[in-house]
Amino acid sequence: MVISPACLAVAISGSRTRKDSPFRMIDILVYLFENYQDLSAHPKPDALARKLSDIGFEDEDISLALVWLNGLKNTQSAEWTCSPLAQRVYTAEEQYRLGAECLSFVIFLETAGVISPQLRELVIEHAMMLDDDPVPLDKFKVIVLMVLWSREQDLEPLIVEELLYEADHDLMH
Hints:
Blueprint: H1 5-13, H2 25-35, H3 45-55, H4 59-74, H5 92-111, H6 117-127, H7 137-150, H8 157-172
């Protein structure tokens, strides 16, 4: 099943009414990463949804997380090359929604060779689907982690620590 970014954005924006929920989509994604290091190792969607529900996650949040993750897994990376001297120009909406912190973090990751320009675009696309204005850096880091995880990128322990554990700590407090 391939879900268009527009449909996914509508589904995620519906989560705005879930402010009272003790768990959010991001918490579920972090849980999945921590418990299923290999993305293909998790149970089938129905079994996984039951397991997440048994743990205490809300059904609506589970659905959003699984739809979002499935959409990410099925998103095709653009096949293109660019000059190492090329610079990405961000739209006004991207600048507003992602803010200086997230955009600086993207530049850092790209400069450090952690993400390619193609992965950068996936990160930005999926971060823009969140309903936060602006997207907090801790949530943005989880999006980066999910993109890398879904693409089965080699994840250095220091990168995982930077992306997950600092973000996980910030999300829980």
